[in-house]
Amino acid sequence: MRFKEYNQNKQELFPYTFDDFIPQNDPVRIVDSAVEHLDLRKLLNRYKNVGCPGYHPKMMMKIIIYAYLRNTYSSRKIEDFTANDIRFMWLAGMQRPDHNTINTFRSGKLKGTLKEVFGQIVHFLVEQKMVSLEKAYTDGTKIEANANRYSFVWGKAIQTRIDKMAEQLNDLWAYAEAVTKEELLDKTPITYQDITSEQIEGLVEKIDQALSDVEIDPKVKNKIKYIKKNWPDKVKQYEEQNKELGDRNSMSKTDPDATFMRMKEDHMGNGQLKPAFNTQISTEDGFVTNYTIHQTTTDTTTYQEHMDSFKEMHGQYPKESIADAGYGSEENYLFAKENDITPFIKYNYFHKEQTKKWKNDPFKSSNFYYNKEKDCCYCPMGQQMHKIGERTTKTKTGFIQTASLYQAKRCTDCPLRCLCHDSKEERIIQINHRLKDLKNWAKELLTCEQGLKHRSQRPADVEQTFGNLKANKNFKKFLLRGMEKVDIEFGLLCISHNLAKYAVKMAK
Fold first, then answer.
1. Domain positions in the chain
2. How would you classify the pairing of strands 369-371 and 376-378?
3. I need a surface site. Which of 2, 91, 100, 155 has the fewest CB within 10 A?
C-alpha cells in the first residue's frame, strides 16, 4: 500500500511561523490591524513605570476583542485559547496571560477608556465610507444582568416596612404614656419621612427608661429588646438601599446597578421580572455607531442621553434619527427640534390614526374641530366647547406637560350623547396643543417618501443587529457586574460586531 509520507518530527530547512498558517482575509488580521492603528495613550497612562512589567495593552486588547468576535466571553476560555489556538497565539506573540490578568484588564484597565476606543473604530469606518454618521437607527433591548433572580429589593416594600416600624414605635410610645400616665412628648414621635437609626435608638431608650419603674406586659418588654437589637441596623440597611435605588423602584442585592425588568425572553411564560440593563444602540448599514447602558425600563427616557452620547463621541448629532413608537414623546420631539435632528420617530396610535375607523370617528377628541382664534373646540353636534383651564403634569425626567381643558354645554338633551360619552356631567376634553403640533410634524415626516424608506429599513438595520448580538453571538446575559463593567462588556461586543461585519464586507 502506498501513503503520503507521515513524520511528526520532520525538520524543515526554514521553520514555519504562525503567520504562514493564517489566511490573508481572516478576521483576526482585521482585529490586529485595527488595534495597531488605535491611539491608546489614555489607556497607557493607566500603567505605572514601577514594579513588574505588565502585558502590553495592545496585545491584551487584541485577544479580548478577537475572543468576543469568536463568541468567547469567559476569561478562562481566553486563557486556554492563548495556549492552544493558533490565531490567539499569533495575536499574543506566544505570551500567555492568565484568566485573572485578562479579567483585571477587561474590568479595570478599560474603565473610562473603551468608549474612546469604540469611537476610533467608528471613525475608521467613516474613513472607509462604511458609515456617514448622518442617520441613526435607534432601538433598545433588555439584557439580563449577572445577578440572582430572587435577590430583589423593592422601593415600595422598603417604604412599607419603615411605615410599619414607625407605626409600632408610635404604639409603644402611646403604651408608655398610658402606663406611666404622663405625656412624654407633645407630638407624634416618629414618621416615615424622618425615621433614622439614631432616632430609633433614642426613642427606644426613652421608652425603656419610662417603663423601667412600672410593671409591664412581658411581650412589650421582649418587643423593646428586639427593637433595640435589630431595628437600628435594619434601618441603616434600608437607608443604604434607598441610596442605591435612587429614582428606581427595584434593584438586585447581588448587582445593585441592575433593575428588575420584564423580559421578552421569558422561558417561564409568566411575565417574570429579571435583573437586567436596558441597552441602547444606534446603527447605520448594520454597523453600531453608538451604544449606551441604562437602568430605566422604558426607552422613552433614554433617548436624550443616548443622543448626547452620540454627539460627545462624534462631535455632532445625527441629521436623521429613526426609531419606533417607544421613543415618541413630546420631550423627545422638542429635543430633536432644538438640536436640528429630523426625527422619523413614531408615536403611540400612529398606525391606528391611519385607519378609516379612526379618521371617520367624529366622537374622538382628536377629531374635534379646534378654532385657534377663539381658542375653543366644537363637538360633533356643532356646540362650542369653551376653555375652562389647564392641566399640568410632570414626567419622571422632570419635563412639564401642559394640556388645555375644554368643556361642552347642554349635553343633557343632546341626541348623540349615548354615542359621545357616558359621563353624567358635560363632556370635558383635554388637548396638548404643543404635542399635537409636534405629532403633526412627525406624521408628515413619517408619511413622506424618505420616511417610508426609513420605516422599512429600520427593522432590517437596528433590529437585525440586535438579533445578531443576542442570537448569533449568543450574548443573552452579562458576565460582569456593575454599570461601568457592563458598559465595557457591551462595548467590546459592539466593537467585535463592527470588525466582523467590516471583515465580511472586505472579503466580498
1. 18-110, 153-252
2. antiparallel
3. 2
Which among 113, 105, 16 is positioned nearest to 63, based on CA atoms?
105
Residues 334/328, Cβ–Cβ less than 8 Å: no
Q: Is the dihedral of CA 7, 13, 14, 20 positive or negative?
A: negative
Task: Find the Cα–Cα–Cα–Cα dihedral 380, 384, 388, 391, rounded to 10°.
Answer: 30
Q: What is the DSSP code string of 315-383?
A: SS--SEEEE-GGG--HHHHHHHHHTT-EEEE--TTHHHHTSHHHHT-TTSGGGSEEETTTTEEE-TT--
Supply angle C-alpha 113, 111, 284, rounded to 5: 55
Q: What is the pLDDT of residues 75-129, one digit of tens each?
A: 999 999 999 999 999 999 899 999 999 999 999 999 989 999 999 999 999 999 9
Cα 146 to Cα 142: distance, rounded to the nearest angstrom? 13
Three-state secondary structure string covering 30-44: HHHHHHHCCCCHHHH
Find, among 162, 172, 176, 174, the residue nearest to 232 by Cα.
Answer: 162
Grid coordinates in use for 481? 457586574
State how far the Cα of 164 lies from the Cα of 176, in Å rounded to an integer: 18
CB neighbours of residue 143 within 10 Å: 25
Which residues touch 135 (CB under 8 Å, ≥6 apart)? 284, 318, 319, 320, 321, 322, 454
Residue with cell string 442605591: 244
Of 236, 296, 229, 226, give the one whose Cα is nearest residue 260. 296
Place of cell 348623540: 416
Cβ-based neighbour number of residue 44 at 10 Å:
13
Q: What is the mean pLDDT of residues 255-281?
A: 82
The CA-CA-CA angle for residues 189, 192, 193, to 5°, reads 95
Number of helices followed by number of strands (H, E) in the chain = 19, 13
Grade residue 302 by pLDDT with cuts at 50, 70 and 90: very high
How far is the C-alpha of 347 from the C-alpha of 362, rounded, in Å? 21
Closest by CA to 105, choosing from 116, 97, 96, 115, is 97
80 phi, psi to nearest 5 deg: -65, -40
Name which of 413, 412, 404, 418 is nearest 368 in CA terms.
404
Q: How many CB atoms are located within 10 Å of the residue 260 CB?
A: 22
8 Å CB contact between 280 and 89: no
| Cell triple for 6 | 507521515
Residue-wise pLDDT for 2-57, tens only, equals 888 777 777 766 667 777 788 888 899 999 999 999 999 899 888 888 778 889 99
Residue in the block written with cell 425572553: 265
What are the Cα distances from residue 151, in Å, to 188, 387, 422, 439? 35, 51, 46, 42
